[in-house]
Write a structure and sequence with these properties.
The complex is a heterodimer of chains A (about 80) and B (about 290). With about 80 residues, chain A is an all-alpha fold. Chain A is about 55% helix and about 0% strand. Chain A has helices at about 5-20, 40-50, 65-80. Chain A is globular. Chain B is an all-alpha fold and about 290 residues long. The longest helix of chain B is centred in the middle third of the chain and has 31 residues, at about 160-190. Classes of the chains: A mainly alpha (about 80), B mainly alpha (about 290). The interface between A and B is medium-sized, with 24 and 26 residues.
């Protein structure tokens, strides 16, 4: 899956979880600046894990700042699975 | 409440109470090294102490709301009474610190108290189970915040305030453990329902009292360093709670979906901003 596809997936899942659009979202977007708090983020991560059939360790989720940070973690997990 | 469950709650409470009596009792007047106050510590340190003192001062509302929700459970109701006694010492010790340090006068404290009592804290959830789950999160988050304050007091060489926060943090984690123990019982009784409520409470959680404290906006900037950011929240509050209760993120996610289907909620709007130190800022601005 390409990076742009992952961003699109993130945007879609974030919309489902937070019930709003994220038109300005890019890989460099700071997650907290998008108004996504930690618990919404955990829901988004969980939904992405289910859709991509991967499992991300909790410790990899603690220091995420940007959307790209998450997507890099996702890509690494996809490569391993 | 059915007999078996009532007996479990009673047993858990007596275990908690015996341990508290044996190991955790402290006296705000005798056990704080009041001669080791650093009167030159920063005003920010005092402002944080005053803010936390203010939050603790909503005790009458916490007690009135909390104890009535669980009044039909001996174990939980008696815990609430004991909890209230312990929490009452927190505001007392912080008040004494503010006065003895010279950071506040008697008149200022009375004025502060009057402002506090002008507003009322409302119960955030209605059922005993929801309130127990709320207690788990709130006590754990408070524990983490007070540890941070303890370190800050230590850095400013105020042994008295360090000791106060040490005692308070120890109480908070003990309260958290009791709530967690009760939640484990509730999970045994009704795992699906309890998980659904946990997902709901997590989603709607906000810390008590903070937004009610006088001059809230003026405290925000100073308080920022006293809060916990999203990484700390996940690392020290969210994941530890799930691990302790034996719950995975995915299990909670599934429970959240079911809860929303059952209750017709169109998506929770989590409010955790206060934990970021910028207590109560709009979520869009300061999400954890």
């Amino acid at each position: 899956m390409k990076s742009q596809d992952l961003i699109a997936l993130f945007r879609q899942v974030a919309k489902e979880v937070d019930k709003r659009d994220f038109p300005e979202l890019t890989g460099d977007s700071v997650i907290s600046d998008l108004g996504i708090d930690s618990l919404s983020m955990m829901q988004i991560v969980g939904e992405m894990e289910l859709k991509l059939d991967i499992m991300i360790p909790d410790e990899d989720l603690v220091e995420l700042v940007t959307v790209k940070d998450l997507l890099e973690v996702v890509e690494r997990r996809m490569e391993r699975s | 409440m059915e007999t078996r469950l009532a007996l479990r709650m009673y047993q858990e409470y007596t275990t908690f109470f015996q341990k508290a009596e044996r190991e955790r009792r402290w006296n705000p007047f005798d056990d704080i090294p009041w001669d080791k106050i650093n009167k030159n510590a920063s005003d920010e340190l005092a402002l944080c102490a005053e803010t936390f003192c203010g939050v603790e001062m909503y005790l009458p509302d916490y007690v009135a709301g909390g104890i009535n929700v669980v009044r039909k459970s001996f174990g939980q109701a008696w815990f609430q009474a004991n909890w209230a006694y312990e929490e009452s010492k927190h505001a007392l010790a912080l008040t004494e610190y503010l006065l003895r340090s010279g950071k506040r006068t008697d008149e200022q404290m009375v004025d502060f108290q009057n402002h506090i009592f002008d507003k009322t804290w409302e119960l955030p959830f209605k059922t005993p189970r929801e309130m127990t789950l709320y207690g788990v999160i709130q006590e754990m988050a408070t524990f983490v915040i007070y540890l941070k304050q303890r370190d800050r007091a230590s850095a400013e060489k105020c042994e008295a305030l360090h000791k106060i926060y040490d005692f308070i943090a120890r109480d908070e984690i003990a309260h958290c453990r009791f709530y967690q123990t009760v939640v484990k019982v509730l999970l045994e009784e009704d795992r699906e329902g309890t998980l659904g409520d946990l997902s709901h409470v997590f989603a709607k959680f906000e810390m008590p009292g903070v937004k009610l404290v006088p001059d809230y906006d003026g405290r925000v900037e100073v308080m920022r360093s006293a809060g916990i950011d999203r990484a700390v929240f996940l690392q020290k509050v969210y994941f530890p709670i799930l691990r302790y209760l034996g719950i995975t993120r995915h299990e909670l996610l599934q429970a959240s979906r079911k809860w929303k289907e059952a209750h017709g909620e169109d998506g929770a709007q989590p409010i955790l901003t206060h934990l970021n130190g910028a207590h109560g800022e709009p979520r869009q601005q300061r999400a954890l």
